[in-house]
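ping. complex inputs:
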Amino acid sequence: MNVAAALSPAETVFAYHARTKHSLKRYAAGPETLDWDMQPNPFREFEGCARTTLEPGAGRLDTGFAQASTQGGVSAAALTIESLASLLELSMGLSAWKEYGPDRWAVRCNPSSGNLHPTEAYVFSSNVPGIHDGVHHYLSRDHVLELRYESDNRPEEPARLWIGLSSVHWREAWKYGERAFRYCQLDVGHALGALRYAAGALGWRATLVEDVDSAELAAMMGLDRVDAFADVEREEADLLIAIETAPGTNRAAERFPGFVRHGDGNRWAGRANLLDPHPLYRWPVIEQVSQATQGRGTGLPSEFQGYPPLHRANEVRAAEIILGRRSAQRFDSKCWMSADTFYRLLDGLLDRPNAPWDVWNFAPRVHPVFFVHRVEGLDPGVYAMPRHPAAVQALREQLRGDFEWQAPENLPAHLPFFRLLRTDCRIIARTMNCHQAIAADSCFSLSMLGEFEPVVSANPWRYRQLHWEAGLLGHALYLEAEAAGLRGTGIGCYFDDALHEVLGLVTTQFQSLYHFTVGRPLTDDRISTLPAYPDRPVPPSRESRP
Ligand SMILES: Cc1cc2nc3c(=O)[nH]c(=O)nc-3n(C[C@H](O)[C@H](O)[C@H](O)COP(=O)(O)O)c2cc1C
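pong. complex structure:
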């Protein structure tokens, strides 16, 4: 009997979440051996599609990072093939090739667990100068568009643009086994954030189209086409983003690209490549949880909390930060971060009508708990930042009864930030994060507590969306840390219930969905950095920072 079939979608999700927890005694089920030479191909491409070459010129954009994060912070670029190329380059594009001995690997503007990059991007274009109307797959390796579906020209309509995201779960499952679905969803959240910041650098907005469900989206992206995916790894549809290139031109609330839904099946082209010719394992629970979380969700019109506006210096260019973003692999364990910088990073996590929080109408449901190690003027210890007023009470009820809930001295008045416990938490942080030193040698690390059981019970699709929110938090931290001259690293490997126990969580009203860490990076000089697109003209300003 298929056990999953007997469970409701919400029960399937809860069972998946429980069985994919890492614990101090055992890791979630995953491959026992890995043959590194047999890694799945990190680049999906479609044979038999017309290709459009894009120029990698985004490094030249001079929008400041603060401007890129603010709605209307910079005048909107015209929607052309060049500006679309910049949007893709700054979000899903390569930022460099790395080389160490015989090994060579690409890194991208969007981070990904294990650098496995399960997230694929599809462009829906209508009347964009220089590009066919229709659906294109973006191949980041070559910075090209592959035309999968050509639609009729509709010259009377304004130029419009959408981006769809999908996941090849196998890329992640190859290495991480059953827990991989969670990582894929976190990666989607990062990609959503990357698209929002990239849109901001062009004076545009990126907004989740809520009114489309997973099956419709799969059909629009051509992911349900048996001919295109016969005998190769499937892609699952995740989300659709409307790009608003000038106020009111492509609001997400308007209907999505109808030209594809009503399209003619004969207009599809392309066969997906095989990524892993010799898969050694199968993880059926990933398929089950993916099915159980299909659907859609609609947030309520935003109720931003009216935090005072951000005032930031614009000195650093957004493109420089985005192209230079990297995960720290080691931290300087002697580095102290200033309180100003720390609070600026926290400020970037507040739910405001700016990047990346204006991507949707969902109220914040993910709340960081910080493990502060080295922030000047702040006692080392455990701190909480409920990102919604209602979460303060809920967290107080669920977390340990002896936590202090005190505002630290000299806290900027608008920050909902509370000290829970003064303590040296370096050993705990390291242990909880699968014994990774990056969680303790940094200036601080954090765990993101998602409002879990009630939200997922009401709509299992929210399991995905909660992970996307956690990914957005991670992405904001990556870029804000980079802007502050520091560096972050996402942490997907942590011992779920051991962490919950430390915080006193006994129910599943909250669950930790993602961890992160920030500090001053130590770089490995043995690894060399090469240009992302060596055979294309590269402007001098696009060099990655060390
Ligand atoms: C969801 C997610 C989970 C991650 N988990 C870990 C982790 O547990 N440990 C770690 O050292 N790095 C982790 N990383 C960092 C990735 O390894 C890194 O993003 C990837 O190697 C690509 O490098 P880049 O971020 O410099 O582009 C994670 C990243 C993401 C997005």
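Residues 52 and 194 are 22 Å apart (CA to CA).
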